[in-house]
Amino acid sequence: MIATILLSIGIVFLAELGDKSQLMALTFALRYRWWVVLGGIATATAGVHLISVAIGYFLGAALPTRAISLVAALTFLAVGLWTLREHLGAPDEHDEPKAPRSTAAPFLVVLSAFLLAELGDRTMFATAALATDNSWFGVWLGSTVGMVAADALAIAVGIAVGKHLPERLIGICSGLLFLYFGTATLLGAAAPSLSALAGMGLAAIAPVALGVALLVRRGRLREEKIGGEAAVAEGVQR
Questions:
Q1: Lowest-pLDDT range, 3-12, 47-56, 100-109, 110-119?
Q2: What residue spans of the chain are helical by DSSP H?
């Protein structure tokens, strides 16, 4: 049992390093409190891995992965647009760094996002494969601990970064990252033959273009503000 738990922890932990789930965990940590993010990840991971070890590889192979990916993509895009809409009208706080605050129902947002992202993911298949020759409980416990540990590293990075950035900038960056996740997931479902590198490059086009547009817009607004203040000051002097 102990050997199975350690084996599952090691395999899943290494598999999750650099995976999209770590980027998602980091992004959520920029927006919500760390224990909310970690709790949502742990709950979603335990549920998905319980399914994989209980039913086994056959359920994993039969899952409608394309349909799940499409739903996940739409979820990520919706969260990204919602986050951008929430912060684009916020006051400029670039001189006042703050820790990110939670919004409505953050636990459910994290839980649903990770459930959709992990269903049919390679980690689920690996967990199902391990369960065929090992104790299902040991595999379930070890795989859950391994994934939560890997995502906890990303959460720690998000906390460290979030302490030194203004809340508005954090919100905009989070929104752009979710747009990237949504676009990448959508491309993966629509064009499964597309290489991972090409998919990452194409997925980055939309958020990068939008980010540049936001920077240009912010620069223009700042110039208009400075120009208006100068005009008022000149009028007062006269």
A1: 100-109
A2: 2-16, 20-31, 34-55, 57-62, 65-88, 106-118, 122-133, 136-162, 167-190, 196-237
CB of 184 within 8 A of CB of 77?
A: no
In whole angstroms, how far apart are CA 13 and each of 6, 8, 123, 146, 151? 10, 8, 10, 5, 9
Say if CB 188 and CB 113 are below 8 A apart.
no
Question: In whole angstroms, what is the distance from residue 24 CA to residue 43 CA?
Answer: 15
Contact 162, 100 (CB under 8 A): yes
Alpha-carbon distance 210 to 191, whole Å? 23
Q: What pTM was computed for the model? A: 0.66
pLDDT by residue (tens digit) across 44-97? Answer: 999 888 887 876 555 544 556 677 677 777 877 887 787 777 766 544 444 444
What 3-state class would DSSP assign to 166? coil
Give the other-Cβ count within 10 Å of 181's Cβ.
24
Residue 70 CB burial class (10 angstroms; 0-12, 13-18, ≥19): middle
User: Phi then psi for 20, rounded to 5 degrees?
Assistant: -65, -25
Residue pair 99/163 in contact by the 8 Å Cβ criterion: yes
Q: How many CB atoms lie within 10 A of CB 26?
A: 22
> Do 203 and 189 touch, CB atoms closer than 8 A?
no
Q: What are phi and psi of 147, to 5 degrees?
A: -70, -45
